[in-house]
Amino acid sequence: NASDVVTTPYLKFTSSAVTLLAMSFGKPCIAPDKGSFKEVLDGKGAFLYDPDTKDGLSQAITAAVEAKEDLPAMGQYNLQQAEKREWDNIASMTLDVYRQCLSE
């Protein structure tokens, strides 16, 4: 909670649990533009970078520093996105998928 931005510079990953935790704390993120990060983050709440570019991460960090005044709004956006992923909402969406499959 003491940070302004959370960075998740993973080269290999299977989920974005740290990212979701950061979002639930209302923090903007710096993350690779691939895999599960692309499922939960976008440019409104994150600085996404190409992990295959040599200086992609450093460019994203520089962009975050230069956008310091935008960070609180980005964090609020991420908090709103994280709240959509609460267990009740996920359970309801999963149930809808099953109902749709059964009705076909």
Can you give me a brief rundown of this structure?
The chain is mostly helical. The protein is built from 5 helices and 3 strands. Strand 2 (29-32), helix 2 and strand 3 form a beta-alpha-beta unit.
Describe the structure.
It is a single chain. This protein has 5 helices and 3 strands; from the N terminus they run βαβαβααα. It has 104 residues and is mainly α. It has a 3-stranded parallel sheet, sandwiched between helices. The termini are far apart.
Number of strands: 3
Helix-and-strand structural type: mainly alpha
Strand order of the largest sheet: 1-2-3
N-to-C order of helices and strands: EHEHEHHH
Shape estimate: globular
Proportion of strand residues = 5-15%
* Sheet with the most strands, sense and barrel status: 3 strands, parallel
Label this structure with key terms.
104 residues, mainly alpha, 3-stranded parallel beta sheet, 3 strands, globular
Topology:
Blueprint: E1 6-7, H1 17-24, E2 29-32, H2 37-40, E3 46-49, H3 56-66, H4 71-83, H5 87-103
